[in-house]
Hints:
The chain is of the alpha+beta class. It has three helices and four strands, in the order αββαβαβ. It comes from Paenibacillus agilis.
Amino acid sequence: MADNNAAVVEISQKASSFRSSIVLQAENKYIDVKSILGLFTTLVNSHAYELHVHGPDAEEAKKTMVEVFQKHGLNINIVE
């Protein structure tokens, strides 16, 4: 079980270092990953998440976000 506070803060900080749009899809909700508040209300370990990344540094952003989600034990799929 990940420490959600640490996960939320790290995910948001990492996402904020990219210019790309990074949006987390959890069921029918879409959350801007750069929004700590949005993540706090959405991030639950039992879910599988989809990540939509678009922008000038999208490839690097995808790689980094997968690493940080996996580090915290969160299941993430990148939507191409």
